[in-house]
Amino acid sequence: MITCTRVLVRMLYPRPYRDRWGEDLCEAAQAEGWRSWPNLVASAVTIWLQPAIWPSGHRGQRSARTAAMVLAVAGCGWFLANLITEDADPSLRCVLQVCSVGLLAGCALVTPVPHPNPAALAAVVRRSIRYFAVPAVLIAAVVLIVHGGVLPAIPPLPIRPAIVGLWWAGWLLAVGAGSRALANLGPESAVAPGGCRAGVGCVILAGVAVAAGAVMVTAAFSGAGVDPFAAVCGTFTLTFAFAGAAALCELPALADD
Questions:
Q1: How far apart are CA 165 and CA 174, in angstroms?
Q2: Do the beta carbons of residue 101 and residue 209 sit within 8 Å?
Q3: C-alpha angle 206/211/215, rounded to 5°?
Q4: Interatomic CA distance for residues 221 and 214, integer angstroms
């Protein structure tokens, strides 16, 4: 029982939260037994949606974690919306094209700038390679397969879904890698963006997430019947987008530890 509870806490909660309150959390959960597990899961979801309240080790870390969370929601929402609306109304596709520009602009605004010295640049390059190697390989492989003459102009039916799946998996992993890199980049390697710049970037990313969620909900109810997958994905994206906006509102009232 004790081992299962500790494993559950380790799997569900972010490391900064575990490092500060993990032991107290495990002791309280162990005292209650397996009945505490549903509460652990619900609490973990709440904690992940509030990165601003995680313990912080340096100035700007709360802002970076919140930006990473908003980026993850916006990127995943954009990914799902593109997947769901491939054959939808062209007006929805136009909205997603605008979202693509917003996603790039938001990323540029919230990304820290590396220190202009060899050691810091080398650290950023090493970290970037570690995070982005897999998605870069997947995306490059799809480009090579499609444009390198590896397959005929119209691939066989079983291969087409696999290629599309690899393409979107690569971009989804790239969103996750970008969020991790943003949240874990320390002050020794890069300079965090100023409060105004980071705030504008987060607001843009939150707007992208809201737009992507709205597109999915619209697509779910605009056809002949209701698309439950699109409706659920859109609802979750909107929920997480508003949770990210709430986390942004919490930042001014919080101080670094």
A1: 14
A2: no
A3: 150
A4: 11
User: Is the distance from CB of 147 to CB of 163 less than 8 angstroms?
Assistant: no
Output the six-digit token pair for 197.
């710049």
Question: Sign (positive/negative) of CA torsion 91, 92, 93, 97?
Answer: positive
pLDDT single digits (tens) 102-159 = 999 998 888 887 778 888 788 888 888 888 888 889 888 888 877 776 666 555 667 7
Q: Which amino acid appears at position 135 of this protein?
A: P
Instruction: Retrieve residue 208's tokens.
Output: 């992208």
Under a CB-based contact definition with an 8 Å cutoff, are residues 183 and 131 in contact?
A: no
DSSP string across 157-218: TTHHHHHHHHHHHHHHHHHHHHHHHHHH--TTTEEPPPHHHHHHHHHHHHHHHHHHHHHHHH
DSSP-assigned letter for residue 224: S
pTM higher than 0.85 for the full model?
Answer: no
Token pair of 206 as six digits? 């939150």
Residues 210 and 254: their CA atoms lie apart, in Å, by 25
109 CB-contact burial (10 Å; exposed 0-12 / middle 13-18 / buried 19+): buried
